[in-house]
Amino acid sequence: MFSCKALTGQVYIGMMTAMPVVYKIVPDTLWQQARQSGVFHGAPIDLTDGFIHFSTAKQAKKTAELYFAGQTGLLLVAIDGNALGDKLVFEPSRGGDLFPHLYAPLALSSVLWEKPLPLGADGAHAFPEMAE
User: Fold this and answer.
1) Which domain holds residue 74?
2) Domain total for the chain?
């Protein structure tokens, strides 16, 4: 994507930075409540920390392994990072990696898709294909 800006009669063409797709692992029961209201306010840890924790595609599997090991009834929700605007902030977290954090409720209109996150035969969650 390119943007053009006119400045004192000159046109500058620059690359726009596109926000990635971000992901939320969430229990289906909690997500059902969000579906009814059209807004997700966060899981208990999100409410405690003051922001909604997301992961990138590269981070999601490790997040599942560390925080959701063995849990069933989970969904993987893909969210359009562009739709979140400046309320989506990437901040250092696990191992210094930059993690996406949303400092606002999540409007379900920014959700691209939601898919079950079942446990595989090896006990790890079986992830669908994810956009980077």
Assistant:
1) 19-116
2) 1
